[in-house]
Amino acid sequence: MNEFKPFEDKIAGLIASLSPAARRRITAEIAKRLRASQQQRIKRQQAPDGTPYAARKRQPVKGKKGRVKRAMFTKLRTNRYMKVKGTNEAAVVEFTGRVQRMARVHQEGLRDHPNLYSELVQYEARKLLGFSSHDMSNIRDSIIKILTY
What angle (nearest 5°) sits at the alpha carbon of residue 114, between those of residues 56 and 47? Predict the structure, then answer.
C-alpha cells in the first residue's frame, strides 16, 4: 500500500490521539463510503482505473434465446453480499458468503464451472474491488470532515 504512505504519515498523529471508539467510528464511516463508491463503479461496469469491463461472451446457439438483458453483478453489488467492517486499525469492504468465490474468480480472471454440470470456463479479469483516485480523495475528505468536528 505504497500509495497510502504519504497520506498516512500526515494524519498518523491525529488518529493516534483519538480514542479506540472514535477510530472505529471513523473506519466504519470510511468503509461505508468506500462500499457506496465501489457499488456505483460496479453499476457503471468499470474497473478502478476507469476502463470498462470485458463484455460477456456470446451464448452458444443451443443456449438461451435472445440476449442477456441484465447488467453483470447486479445482485453482487447489494449490501447483502458486499459487507463493510470498521475496526480500530482498518476499514474493510469484502464479499461474504457463497458469492465470495465467484467474486474472486471475476476479480482475478480465473477458471471456474458456471454451473454444476458444465465444463471449466476461463473468465475475463473484471476488477470488482479496488482503489481509484476518486476513492482516495473521498477517504481523505471523510477523515478531514470527521476530525474537524
Answer: 40
